[in-house]
Write a structure and sequence with these properties.
The chain is an alpha/beta fold. The chain has three domains: about 160 residues, ATPase, nucleotide binding domain (Nucleotidyltransferase, domain 5, 2-Layer Sandwich), CATH 3.30.420.40; about 60 residues, Dna Ligase, domain 1, CATH 3.30.1490.300; about 100 residues, no CATH class. About 40% of the residues lie in helices and about 30% in strands. The model has no long low-confidence stretch (mean pLDDT about 90). The chain binds adenosine-5'-triphosphate (ATP) and magnesium ion. The site of adenosine-5'-triphosphate (ATP) has 20 residues, from helix 7.
Length: about 375
């Protein structure tokens, strides 16, 4: 932890949110001037690391990329907030027996074990009691359990440290998205919203109802799944598939489909078919989480879907998913709350900054407390 002296010497504004993804590293740093948030720095560092690179080498490459970028852009940050997701972490919203804080602290490993699919010895277990409730006539507590694999947390700490930064917090992608969502949404919004952050290897799913997260799950259908399907259809390598994916998209309306056929646009049709197939698989997985959520006896069905992550740039993805789920789908602008929009930011970078923005915001909040 920081000593008070360090806090005085290095004001909290120097904390950067840094989202180390499989496709790109995203960086966000805010500063507060007269109670108004301003974007101090942002960064997007594409990573093209060969799949067979050994883990240690991979970490070294990422650290170096970050270090070089910070230097090139003269970003003078000292502290960083990063996050983990995917296989490295499990988040569960569960009902535990009503216990005092002390009692729970003593028994948490035993209480949590049935919900955690990892060996409890390999994880950092944290938890928070959300509220009192009851089930089967017994007093219970709604509790969120977070089990993070020690090794994965250490990997992020190593990358950040080797990049010359000090890791202040290792958060979870989904919690960063929740922080962002709370910043973007007006207070008192009662609806249930589905957040889908579609990246390269993982899609982070959250269901937020009345400002509180109810379901969190990571799904392993994301950008790489599209590349594989498109690569197979076009008989091309993943890099070419990635490029085709960015140039094309899914054909949704009958007019678009007819126009593609008329123009003999073989590649466009093949990409659309492959991408539609993956989106349908994603739809099936997401539907299971929605059913799980609804099975808990909640009164609100999902009223809309907010997309983020690099994959939300896929042409027509909102229209496609809106037709499948039959609810409105929009792409997030994670920086919509700023009075001054950032200049010179490529349009497709913006939705990919969701996690980094949530990380940067969370730090500001934590410092205020
Ligand atoms: N303009 C675009 N059109 C279509 N897809 C895009 C576009 N820009 C980025 N993508 C895709 O978005 C994906 C990367 O998204 P993102 O940066 O959110 O992933 P990540 O955070 O690095 O990965 P992960 O969270 O899985 O580790 C890639 O599959 C990339 O091809
Ligand atoms: Mg990501």
């Amino acid at each position: 932890m920081l000593s008070n002296l360090a806090k005085m010497m290095f004001p909290p504004k120097d904390v950067i949110g840094i989202d180390i993804g499989n496709y790109a590293v995203k960086i966000i740093c805010f500063t507060e001037e007269k109670k108004t948030l301003k974007l101090k720095d942002w960064g997007y560092i594409p990573l093209s690391i060969k799949a067979d690179t050994p883990p240690e080498e991979k970490k070294a490459i990422i650290s170096q990329e970050i270090k070089t970028y910070l230097k090139k852009k003269s970003i003078q940050a000292r502290y960083a907030a990063a996050s983990i997701s995917g296989n490295a972490v499990i988040v569960r919203y569960v009902k535990l027996p009503k216990l005092s804080k002390k009692e729970l602290a003593l028994t948490i490993n035993v209480e949590a074990e049935p919900f955690i699919p990892f060996d409890i010895k390999d994880v950092n277990l944290t938890y928070a009691i959300l509220n009192d409730t009851s089930a089967d006539g017994e007093p219970k507590m709604d509790t969120v359990l977070v089990a993070a694999k020690r090794e994965a947390v250490q990997d992020k700490i190593d990358i950040i440290t080797d990049a010359g930064l000090e890791p202040l917090i290792i958060d979870v992608d989904s919690f960063a998205l929740e922080t962002l969502y709370n910043q973007l949404m007006p207070k008192g919004d009662n609806s249930s919203v589905l957040l889908l952050n579609i990246g390269q290897k993982v899609t982070n799913l959250s269901i937020v109802s009345q400002g509180v997260t109810r379901v969190v799950r990571d799904i392993f259908i994301a950008g790489a799944t599209f590349d594989k399907a498109i690569g197979k259809a076009l008989k091309s390598d993943p890099a070419a598939a990635d490029a085709a994916k960015k140039n094309r998209g899914v054909l949704v309306s009958d007019e678009d489909k007819a126009a593609a056929i008329e123009a003999f646009d073989k590649e466009g049709i093949a990409v659309s078919k492959a991408a539609s197939g993956v989106l349908k698989d994603l739809y099936t997985e997401v539907s299971r989480s929605i059913d799980f959520y609804l099975s808990q006896g909640v009164d609100h069905s999902i009223s809309r879907i907010i997309l983020s992550g690099g994959m939300s740039n896929l042409g027509n993805i909102s229209r496609f998913l809106a037709a499948e789920f039959k609810v409105p789908v929009e792409v997030a602008n994670p920086l919509a709350f700023l009075e001054e929009a950032p200049k010179n930011m490529p349009k497709d970078v913006l939705p990919a900054l969701a996690v980094a923005t949530g990380l940067a915001l969370r730090k500001l909040k934590d410092w205020e407390e």
